[in-house]
Amino acid sequence: MPEWVHSLAAIPRDSVYCIGVPVVADRALLEACRHLVAPEEMSQACRYARLGDAVSHLMGRVLVRQVLRATFGLEVTEPFHVSPYGKPYCPQCAAFFSISHCHDMVWVALCREGAVGIDVENVSALSEFSEIVAHLHPSERAYLLDLDEGDRPGAYCRCWTRKESVLKAVGRGLSLPLDVFAVDVGPVKENWIVSLPVPLLPDEKGAGFLSALTGQWTSAQVKTGENHCCSVAVAAPHRKLRVLSLMETVWDHARA
Fold it and tell me: What share of residues in the chain are helix, strand, coil (percent, to 5)?
């Protein structure tokens, strides 16, 4: 595993810290993760049909563990806990995190002060998104249907990653209907949450309630390149976006 993995910085205060790395379907990289995750997580990864999915599953957890270690000085050796809706969390650490991956990259987001959600998608992978437009909030649906055909793929991807990042921060996933909250689907880069699902939402740790006031949240687009969209949402106001993009990493030459 390259040295930078072991020297990731702590979560900056008053910030949401986003880290992105490329993923390759490489069995040696899978094995390099073995000593940086819990045995149960390694076993779960080995059950994936696609090697790339297994690497993504582990790499997200490696990144989170290394940042938690830098932030709190803790070696998290046990598997992450999982909420009833499938969101991983670490009860030993006073921080929140979220993990997302598509076929060729992994992104993680961490925040000390509020529940966080991140989502990354490949624009071309959402070609069938038009099938669920009818289930979106009316304002989102109207915006998307008014676009020219050529402008829709990018807007679909913005819409989906923004909604998914909110759902992940809330911790309920797709158990919540897509039309009970709204995001701005336009090209705006931040503060794109228009409305939130319900007045009181417990966070995944049961430590408090998330605000349904949009002004008490931070939302932003994370730059990932032309072919992807990445969005992050945090249940805390005025967080600074700190991004560490390691997309130029060449694993074949970087492994130790």
Answer: 40, 25, 40
C-alpha separations of 84 from 87, 90, 166, 205, 230 in Å:
8, 14, 17, 11, 25
**For residues 127 and 150, is the Cβ–Cβ distance under 8 A?**
no
Q: Using CA atoms, how far apart are residues 73 and 65, in angstroms rounded to an integer?
A: 10
pLDDT digits (tens, 9 = 90+) for 90-147: 999 999 999 999 888 999 999 999 999 999 999 887 666 777 898 999 999 999 999 9
Cα-based angle 163, 205, 92 (whole degrees, multiple of 5): 125
pLDDT tens profile 27-45? 999 999 999 999 999 999 9
If we measure between CA atoms, which residue out of 256, 254, 228, 222 comes closest to residue 108? 222
Give whole-number Cα distances, 177 to 135, 136, 137, 183, 196, in Å. Answer: 8, 8, 9, 14, 12
Could you give the domains of the chain? 3-254 (3.90.470.20)
Q: The tokens of 191 are what?
A: 């503060």
| Closest C-alpha to 104, from 230, 238, 255 | 230
Joined together, the tokens standing for residue 127 give 């070609």
Give the separation between CA 147 and CA 201, rounded to whole angstroms. Answer: 34
| Alpha helices for the chain (secondary structure H) | 3-6, 27-32, 39-45, 51-72, 138-145, 152-170, 251-254
Is 232 strand, coil or helix?
strand
Task: Specify the pairing of strand 105-111 against strand 116-122.
Answer: unpaired
Residue 26 tokens read as 């490489």
The count of C-alpha atoms lying within 13 angstroms of the C-alpha of 95, restricted to the half-sphere facing its C-beta, is 27
Give residue 176's pLDDT. 86
Q: How far apart are CA 227 and CA 223, in angstroms?
A: 11
